[in-house]
Amino acid sequence: MSGMPQPRKRGMLCGCGLLGVGIWLSVSQGSFATFSPSFPSLSAANMVIAIGAIVMVTGFLGCLGAIKENKCLLLSFFIVLLIILLAELILLILFFVYSDKVSENAKQDLKDGLALYNSENNIGLRNAWNIIQAEGCFEKVEEWLDDNKHLLGTIGMVILVVQLLGMAFSMTLFHHIHRTGKKYDA
């Protein structure tokens, strides 16, 4: 990784770190931090593993494509970023369109989770509830989201700008390589 540009190196390391933390969470915590009893595979560990893997693969495509000046890898990097961007936009739109349904499902999942709280075979869930439930749950989360919506929006905009810059730079380098007539060397 010594020939990689510094920002891309950090991106790859962040992806590796997220992947490692996700695997550690999955192995050490089991079902701890399952977001929804109706979707048991939707846990913090699985989300971190998925995000880490996506960041690593995307960073690898961008790094290798830029270093080797490979048009195919740069185009792949652009397409992966475009797919991620479109998926984020679709999820955002669906969240706002179905926000009432999301709220109802969250309340029901919290009730279902409380029913599982006293079971002996689900210590991870009990620990998660003990950490999270120092105060009232659903209203507190809604209040926190409402209080921090500007921060969350800012973080989302920063991520959007970084994605758009990555797409712009990959296309700029792609067209530069295309104009200079470089061919792929095996």
TrEMBL record:
It comes from the Eukaryota. It is found in: Membrane. PROSITE patterns: TM4_1. The chain crosses the membrane at residues 43-67, 74-98, 151-174. GO terms for cellular component: plasma membrane. Keywords: Glycoprotein, Membrane, Transmembrane, Transmembrane helix. Its main location: membrane. The keyword Manganese does not apply. It is a multi-pass membrane protein. Belongs to the tetraspanin (TM4SF) family. This is Tetraspanin. It comes from Collichthys lucidus.
